[in-house]
Amino acid sequence: MSILKAFLLLTYVSFSVTTFSQDRYEWKQASSNGYTYRYVTNDPMATRFYTLKNGLSVILSKNTKEPRVAVKIAVRAGSNNDPKEHTGLAHYLEHLLFKGTDKFGSLDWTKEKPLLDKIESLYEQYNGTKDEAKRREVYKEIDRVSGEAAKFAIAGEYDHLMKALGSQGTNAHTSVEETVYHEDIPANAMDKFLAIQAERFRNPIMRIFHTELEAVYEEKNRGLDNDGNKMQEAMFSTVFPTHNYGLQTTIGTIEHLKNPSITAIRDFYNKYYVPNNMAVLMAGDFNPDELIKKIDNHFSFMKAKPVVEYKGTKEKPIEGPVVKEVYGPTAESIRILYRSAPAGTREAMLADLASDILANGKAGLIDLNLNKQQKVLGAGAALWQFKDYGIFFLLASPKQGQSADDVKDLLRSQIAHLKNGDFDETLVKATAANYKLSRLQSLESNAARVNSIMDQFIKNRGNEWNKEVALIDEMSRITKKELVAFANRFFTDNNYVVLYKRKGEDKSITKVEKPPITPVETNAGKSSPFVKAIIETPLPSLKPVFVDYNKDLQRGKVGNAEVLYVQNEDNSLFRLSYRFDMGSWNNKKLPLAAQYLQYLGTDKYTSEEISKQFYNLACNFNVFPGDEQTTITVSGLQENFDKAVSLFEELLKNCKPDEAALEGLKNLLTKARANNKLNKGAIASAMQSYAMYGPKNPYNYTLTDEELKNLKANDLTDLLHGLTNNQHRIGYYGPQPINQLTTNLQKLHSLPASWATNSDAVKFERVKQTANKVLFANYDAVQSEIFWVKNLSVYDPKNEAMINLFNSYFGGGMGSIVFSTIRESKALAYATNARVITPGKKDDYFSIVAYVGSQSDKMNDAVTSMNELLNELPRTEQSFENARTSLMKNIETDRITQDGIITSYLNAQRKGLDRDLRQENYALYSTLKLDDIYKFHQETLAKQPYTYCVVASDKRISMDDLKKYGELQVLNLEELFGY
C-alpha cells in the first residue's frame, strides 16, 4: 500500500464522508519565481510538479524537520528495456554511473580515452568470437589494456566526493521498470550536489569495466546461493510467461554476462537517459522557489529525445493451477500467486485492500485463523504493483510435521473465507484508522516522501498524483459487498500459481566462472581537478545541535518509577515504553514468554478479541527482551491512549495459561530452530559469537531441547504477570502534558510498593585471542563467507571518535580502503567491509569484524588481501579528509528528536555517561590526523592473531588451505546453536 494512500485514509477517520467531493483533490497550476508548477489541492505533502523546458520532471516536497534532503534521480527504464541479446544491461549500466565522466574519475582523460576505446573494441571482438582458445586470448588482451587504462582512472572518486559532502546512503537500484540513484545530503550542500549530479549524467564513462563486471558476476553468484532470490525470479517467470517482467531477470543471464558490450550499454544510456524520461525527486529542507531554478540551471544542457516505452504483451489468463518448484538448502515454504491488474485501476485498489483483509499483521483472516491459532509456522499476503500488472501472493512456512501441501490448503481456505464474506465489516473500516497511524509515522520521513513520489513517477510520470491523493474518496466507498464480489472474480479455482520452495540440491545452478583478472590501480587518494574544485569550495555553515539531557528531557514519577518525557507538538501520535534492566541473560524463558503472550487471552477477552481491539484502536504493543534489557512499547493514536494502555495492562497482568497454545508454540519454535540451522546468515552469526566468547556464548545461551520440552504454561504466565514488578523506567513521547500523563498512568499502570529482586544476569567472558584460529561450518553454497573476529580493549569513551574515524576510512562503505582494494582493484568480492564495533555498555570491549563474501575458488586470494589490509594500512590523505568531513557533516545535520532523546539518554547511561558524547567526538574529529589512525591500526590490528569464521561448502574449498591460516576447528550446528 502506498504511503500517500495511508495518509488519505486517515482523513476519512477524522471527517464525515459527506464532506468529500471529487473537487477536493484537484490539479491546480501556480507560478513562482518565474517557474510554473502543478500541485494537487489538499495534498498533505504539498508536492510540486515541475516540467522543465527539456522535459525533465522535477518533483519537490518540502519538509524542514532536519537540515537534510532525500534525493532520488529516477529513470523510467529497467530490465524490461534490456535488449533481448543483452539482458542485465540496465543493471550493469547502473554500476557504471558511479565511475565518473571525462572530467572526474580520471587523472588524464586524453591518455585514458584511447585505451578505453580499445577496450570497447576488444569487447566487441570478444563477443563475436566463438572459439574458446581465441576468446581467452582476446580476454587476456582486455585484461592487459584494462590495467594500462586503470593507471589513469580514479576508482571510487564519486563515492569519495559524496562522502566529502556528507551524503548518506549513496546507492542505486534497478528493477523491472526503473533505475534509480539515491542520496541523502546535507541541506547546505545542495549547490555542490547539483553540480556533481549534472556532471555525472552529462557524459558517463564506462571505465574500470572488467573489474566492475566481475562484481556483477559475484552479485549473480550470490543470487544463485540465495533461495529467496530464486523464489522471486520464479514468481515473475511463472506469472508473466510472455511479458518481460518474467522473460528477463534484472541481473541478466549467465550467457549475456559473459559477453558484455560497452557499445550496447552506451546505446542504452543514450536511448533512455534523456530528460523527458527522467526525474529529479527531492524531499527535505529547501526553498522550492530557489531550488527549481538551480536544478534548471544545472540540467538544462540535457536534450530531449523521443523515447519508445516498452509495451509488454497482454498475458493470457493463467490456466492452472501452475506448479513450480525451487530447490535449495534453506527450509521449505510455499507461495500462491495471482496476476493482478495494472497500477491505478480500481481492480488494483481492491486487490490492495484484499491483501490487508487477509493479512495486516494483527487482525486479518490469516493473522487470526492461521498465525494466531498456530496452524502454520508463519503466513502472510501482499501485493507488488507495477505499471502493466501486479503480483498478488500468499506465503507461508510449514510447522513441524506439516507438509507444504497442508499449508497450501490452509492458505486457500482463507481465500474461501474472503470470497464467502466470513469476516466482520468492521475489519474493512478499522483499516482506515491503521492507515492513519502509518501515515502520521511516515509523513515526517524524507525517505518515505520521496519513495512515494518516485513510485508515482515510474508508474505514470506522476500524472495521476491527484488520483493518489483522492484515493480516500474511492476507498471510503468500498463496501464489504464490493470487496467480496471482487474476491469471487479475482480468486478462481484455476487462475493461480503454486510455488514450492523445496529443501534439496539445486541441480540447475551454473556458476559464472571467474575470468583471470590482474589487479588494477585504483589511484586511491588522488583527485581530478573537477573534484578538487568542488571540495575546496566552502559550504555555508551549519552548526550541530546537541542534546542537553537536563533541558530536552522532562522527568516525573509514577509510584516508584521514573518517567522520562518528551512532548510531541507535531501530531496526535504517542509512544509509551517500559524499560527494564533485565533480559534473556537473567532468564532464558523471557524471550519465549514474550512470544507466548500473543496467543493468550484473559478472563475478559480472548486472544483474538484482544488483537481485534488493538487493530480497531489503531494501536500496537510489543514486548522485546534483549540480552540485558527488556522493552515494552505501546503506541498509536493519542485519542486511544487510555484504552490501549488499559488493554495491554489487562493482558499482561491477567493472561491465562494455555497448555494447548504452549504446545503449539513449542512446535513452531522447534521448527524455527531447525530452520535456523539451514540458514547461512544464522550460522555465520552464531560463529561470530563463538569466536568472541567461546563455546559458552550469548548466541547459544538458550533453552535446550529438553528444557523446552519440559516447560509448563504457568512458568511463562507467572513470568509475565510479575514483569512490571521489576524495576523499570517509563518513557513517553506524545501530545499529552506530563502532569496529565503521570496522573493517567497512576490509574493505568499499577506498580509494587517495592521492586522485586532480579536474578543475576549470566556473565560471558570474551576470548583473548593468542593465536590464529579457524572456525569452519559446512554449508552447501557457491559462495564462501569469511569473517575475521578479534576482541580489542575495554570500552573508553575517549576512543569513540578515533574508532568512528577509523571505520569511516578503513571499512565503511564504497569509498573505504577495504572496498576500494578488494572489490574495485582486485575484483575478489561483491560484498566486503570491516569495522570496529563499539560496545553498548561500560566495562565491555571493543571488537573488530571484517568480512569478505567471495567465490570459493577466490577464497585464498580474498583472505590474503584482507590480511594485507589488516597488517598494513594504506595511507591516503584525501580519503582520510573525506572520512573526517563526512563524520562531521553527519553530526552537523543529525537531529536527535522525539523519543530518540529518551533512547539516547538511556544508551548514554549504559556507557556510564551523562552527556551527548557527539559533542566531544565532533571536537576531536578536527584534531585527529591520519598518523593517529595509522598508529591505532598498527598497535591494535596489525600482526595480531584473529579468529577466522568460514561458512562454505567442504566440496568447494580445501581443509588444508584453511589450516594455513590457523588451527582448524570444525563446528557442528548443535555447538553453534545450543540445541
What does this molecule look like?
With 979 residues, the protein is an alpha+beta fold. Among the domains are: 78-272 and 512-536, Metalloenzyme, LuxS/M16 peptidase-like (Cytochrome Bc1 Complex, Chain A, domain 1), CATH 3.30.830; 554-748, Cytochrome Bc1 Complex, Chain A, domain 1 (2-Layer Sandwich), CATH 3.30.830.10; 773-977, 2-Layer Sandwich (Cytochrome Bc1 Complex, Chain A, domain 1). It has 38 helices and 25 strands. A 6-stranded mixed sheet has the order 3-4-8-5-7-6, sandwiched between helices. It has a 6-stranded mixed sheet with strand order 14-15-19-16-18-17, with helices on both faces. Helix 30 (800-810) packs across helix 35 (918-925). The chain is globular, with a radius of gyration of 29 Å. The two termini are 40 Å apart. The model is unreliable at 1-21 (pLDDT under 50).
